[in-house]
Amino acid sequence: MRLNGLKRRGCAVGHNIPPALTLTSLPVKTCARFAIAGLSAAAALAVSPPLHAGDRLQWTGAVTQIEGSAGGGLVPWALIGGLGTDSEVGASAFVTYVSTQDFALRSGGASVGVDNRVEISVARQRFDAGSVVPGLTLGQEVVGVKVRLAGDAVFEPDRWLPQIAVGAQWKRTLDFDQIPHAVGAARGEDVDLYIAATKLYFAAIAGRNIIVDATLRRTRADQFGLLGFGGDGSGYTFAPEFSAAVWLNDDVLLGAEYRDKPDNLSALRENSAENLFLAWSPVKNLSVTAAWVDLGRIAGKSTQRGAYISVWLGY
């Protein structure tokens, strides 16, 4: 069954909202030790035939953004990763490659979604910065948690309330004692917190479905965390992020994203990131996303623009 096959009326599905959850902040270093094991297990789940999983519709698990959370390419959405319903466990895995004039980013990871309510994700990034220092590669590990609080982005079309989720991303810069510390970053570990609201509107533009997301992130990450956290102005910033996309047909999604970023390092100015993407999903368990991306200034280099490609697997 395809998402575009849904009719607007008669789609509401009730969801019981659990009591407030208390999240204990595990040290990032401890979480990172489990990242490889979690990634391997979740990726195996994503490509294994499930017994009781994967009944959500095509696209309802979104794709995966560069830090491992379900969303667009840059922005986490309120959707829960994988395709499991509110009585199933789903999972997803992704690989992403970004190439600009002077840099290249490789990112990969996986997530598990429980009862379409809770998402746990892991990701690892490697950033080729040889244009700054020959042979230099920076890295980052990310462990994420997301909890859906209210709403359903797809199955409640007659309600104004979007799907709302809160999330946390524990980040650890792998190479902090090299360039990040030298250019003024204050620390090598930190936690990004965010709240996201996502809503799908049926037949909204020329009879086509659209999806929109607004996310607000509390962060002090320098270049997503690859250059550490904090700096001259090491206080947290509340950074807005936005996504919007339209279905060209059941299998193709065209959209754009904007992500604001802190500017903590006086030696290396930083600005926002944007993309324009085209995602294709020939079957609901697979999608391929290609994009033009603008990452702004990076490590003293002028505005970095280039190509983005990502492959997503889910059930």
Provide tags for this entry.
mainly beta, 7% helix, Porin, 315 residues
Would you summarize the structure shown here?
The chain has three helices and 14 strands. The chain has 315 residues and is mostly beta strands.
Describe this structure in words.
With 315 residues, the protein is mainly beta. It has a single domain (26-314), classed as Porin, CATH 2.40.160. It is 7% helix and 45% strand. It has three helices and 14 strands. It has helices at residues 28-33, 35-47, 179-182, and strands spanning 63-64, 70-71, 89-100, 104-114, 118-128, 137-150, 163-173, 189-205, 208-219, 237-249, 252-259, 273-283, 286-294, 305-314. Strands 3-4-5-6-7-8-9-10-11-12-13-14 form a twelve-stranded antiparallel beta barrel. A hairpin with a 3-residue loop joins strand 3 (89-100) and strand 4 (104-114). The protein is globular, with a radius of gyration of 19 Å. The two termini are 14 Å apart.
Spell out the blueprint of helices and strands.
Blueprint: H1 28-33, H2 35-47, E1 63-64, E2 70-71, E3 89-100, E4 104-114, E5 118-128, E6 137-150, E7 163-173, H3 179-182, E8 189-205, E9 208-219, E10 237-249, E11 252-259, E12 273-283, E13 286-294, E14 305-314
Antiparallel strand pairs: 1-2, 3-4, 3-14, 4-5, 5-6, 6-7, 7-8, 8-9, 9-10, 10-11, 11-12, 12-13, 13-14
